[in-house]
């Protein structure tokens, strides 16, 4: 059984963060583990508050896992301040963690800052150089590459800039542009486009968390980077197509659509 670790924040309503990551791992039939960095109070209408765990507690969780278990892939989500970022980076380096998928979470869909403004430079200098792949959305890519991305050509330019900062693979997600949901990968040499059809729904809570966790699960299973992204893009496309409402605001995607097939075996008495 492949073992995948998420280092991220808790989302009380279960659509994003640690909860989305663990659901995604389960749906990919890998064994999921979690390091909680922050506890958020949030629902489908937004993030109400966030409480960061002390770095000592985060460090103890990471040491507990790596001192005992061989981790096949790591997904990094919400790390809210520069002390947490440098602690996580130092420990992942120390334990020689492999297949690190960095989702540089910065701001929630409702506008709550999940990363302090002054921590972006720490994310760039500490985490980008050690990750296997970084998966920013347009807004995050703008801040990291200092650009104003408007189209696919701009996405390509930003990919190259972020690759120069030390990320081996860069996947910029086009969910926030208009038209099709096209994600662009740069592998240091060339570009790949992963094209999804834009689905008209408000229920897209946790799409970024889900995509990055799926990539980590697929890398753990041994697929190469392009195959891992391609499978994960299919997974998120189906998960959004089957998304649903659970409250008044932005609902979650369906991690387990594949398990909801039509029942073919009935019983008789
Ligand atoms: N309406 C949509 N239809 C189809 N695909 C979508 C849609 N919205 C987002 N996606 C896809 O979902 C994935 C996540 O992208 P997105 O840009 O939403 O991430 P994000 O902003 O980091 O998400 P999060 O809200 O979790 O922070 C990408 O593959 C993107 O193309
Ligand atoms: C804890 C958490 N991580 C990530 C996101 C993504 O937006 C969120 N809303 N909450």
TrEMBL record:
Reaction catalysed?
4-amino-5-hydroxymethyl-2-methylpyrimidine + ATP = 4-amino-2-methyl-5-(phosphooxymethyl)pyrimidine + ADP + H(+); 4-amino-2-methyl-5-(phosphooxymethyl)pyrimidine + ATP = 4-amino-2-methyl-5-(diphosphooxymethyl)pyrimidine + ADP
Identify the enzyme class. Answer: transferase
- List its EC numbers: 2.7.1.49, 2.7.4.7
The Pyridoxamine kinase/Phosphomethylpyrimidine kinase domain covers: 11-254
Q: Name one GO biological process term.
A: thiamine biosynthetic process
Q: Which SUPFAM superfamilies match?
A: Ribokinase-like
Alphabetic keyword roster: ATP-binding, Kinase, Nucleotide-binding, Thiamine biosynthesis, Transferase
The pathway that the record names for this protein is: Cofactor biosynthesis; thiamine diphosphate biosynthesis; 4-amino-2-methyl-5-diphosphomethylpyrimidine from 5-amino-1-(5-phospho-D-ribosyl)imidazole: step 3/3; Cofactor biosynthesis; thiamine diphosphate biosynthesis; 4-amino-2-methyl-5-diphosphomethylpyrimidine from 5-amino-1-(5-phospho-D-ribosyl)imidazole: step 2/3
Q: Name one GO cellular component term.
A: cytosol
What GO MF terms are annotated? Answer: ATP binding; hydroxymethylpyrimidine kinase activity; phosphomethylpyrimidine kinase activity
Family designation:
Belongs to the ThiD family.
Q: What is this protein called?
A: Hydroxymethylpyrimidine/phosphomethylpyrimidine kinase
